[in-house]
């Protein structure tokens, strides 16, 4: 296996959690390298659903070491709640199994307050943030005013900086956003309690990964969200607040890019996105509702219904190029079972011409009309099927996707559980 990166190729929610869980069987170390608890990975094991927001989903494999890299922003309350849920399910977290980067930044209560107040102030022009404080936390990181995990270990330093930050944030909250301010003493006491619980898990993740590489360990890197939510390459401003592409493991985990052996891209057999932003193949009719209900397309983090549409191969191919994807994992093929006709977008009609990329300008995207290729559907169940046993129409659909993208399909998911997969 060596060192593998798993990346989403659409707008997130591609089913990366299941693919990571599958690949984790061959890994020694599983690493999360960007994003925050605005992302969610859902895994079904022995009929039981597990949802992770921060802890790498490889934690369900008892012999694996899991890490949170410095590129992740951490809400300690959410992290400790995940600790609790895992323990309730018989999964014990120890410093020998789980390591948090000392350089990872902390989400503070004022980050969440600002996030929510801004969205309320924007009204109809809101971008659809989850309100978890992710964006404001990354803002402070870029402004060099944030708190890192290691800062929790220095009480006097933390208190001094916190007083300054709260004075500034409360002015912004109360005077401009017309929202309630936050309490310094309450936050300080709460975060010192977090420090007591989390301190045994805090360490130098980059140093650990370098040693693991020298010892020829197999390392699996899991991304959050999807390529088209990337700060630079996504549908800005309807994006997340971090870089979601594969190259982010350099900055987000401190791992050298030339040590990566394989990049696997994950995409659904159709397309979804949450919140606002362009979506050329969106289906707003009964067919879109059908995909949402059958695919259980509701956010793992927020519960929000996802917008659904046909597979957009223009979007996916851009992501393949951006990430240098070598293999494709296609998920939720079973959701398409029962449809008479299945469509895929192979280009956009823009001002009388066919283009093979998504324009940057929103006004240009609004003029783009999907160019579709149609395929006959299938009625047979895919459960328990091998590649040879798949309906010929399903195989034709998959083979076209592989040929169009120019990469092989290495994994096909035919249901939510670990067992429902074709490799």
- Could you give me the name of the CATH homologous superfamily of the largest domain? Adenylosuccinate Synthetase, subunit A, domain 1
| Principal-axes shape call | globular
Say what the CATH topology of the largest domain is: Adenylosuccinate Synthetase, Chain A, domain 1
Whole-number count of domains: 3
Mean pLDDT, to the nearest integer, reads: 93
* Helix-and-strand structural type: alpha/beta
Query: At the first level of CATH, what is the class of the largest domain?
Result: Alpha Beta
Count of DSSP H/I helices: 12
Q: Radius of gyration in whole Å, from Cα?
A: 22 Å
Unreliable spans are none
N-C termini distance: 14 Å
Give the DSSP E fraction (strand runs of 2 or more residues).
Answer: 15-25%
Q: Largest beta sheet: what is the strand line-up? A: 9-7-5-2-10-1-11-15-19-20
The helical percent reads 25-40%
Word description of this protein:
This protein folds into 3 domains: 3-102 and 202-264, Adenylosuccinate Synthetase, subunit A, domain 1 (Adenylosuccinate Synthetase, Chain A, domain 1, 3-Layer(aba) Sandwich); 105-198, Adenylosuccinate Synthetase, subunit A, domain 2; 267-422, Adenylosuccinate Synthetase, subunit A, domain 3 (Adenylosuccinate Synthetase, Chain A, domain 3), CATH 3.90.170. Helix 3 (109-122) runs parallel beside helix 5. It has 423 residues and is an alpha/beta fold. The chain is globular and about 65 Å long. The chain has helices at residues 16-23, 76-88, 109-122, 134-143, 155-176, 184-198, 205-214, 248-253, 286-294, 313-323, 362-367, 392-405, and strands at residues 3-8, 29-32, 41-45, 48-52, 65-68, 73-74, 98-101, 105-106, 202-203, 219-222, 262-268, 271-273, 307-309, 311-312, 327-331, 341-350, 353-355, 369-376, 409-413, 421-422. The two termini are 14 Å apart. 33% of the residues lie in helices and 20% in strands. It has 12 helices and 20 strands. The strands form 5 sheets. A 10-stranded mixed beta sheet has the order 9-7-5-2-10-1-11-15-19-20, sandwiched between helices. InterPro entries: Adenylosuccin_syn_GTP-bd, Adenylosuccin_syn_Lys_AS, Adenylosuccinate_synth_dom1, Adenylosuccinate_synth_dom2, Adenylosuccinate_synth_dom3, Adenylosuccinate_synthetase, P-loop_NTPase. The active site is at residues 13, 41, 141. Plays an important role in the de novo pathway of purine nucleotide biosynthesis. Catalyzes the first committed step in the biosynthesis of AMP from IMP. Keywords: Cytoplasm, GTP-binding, Ligase, Magnesium, Metal-binding, Nucleotide-binding, Purine biosynthesis. Pathway: Purine metabolism; AMP biosynthesis via de novo pathway; AMP from IMP: step 1/2.
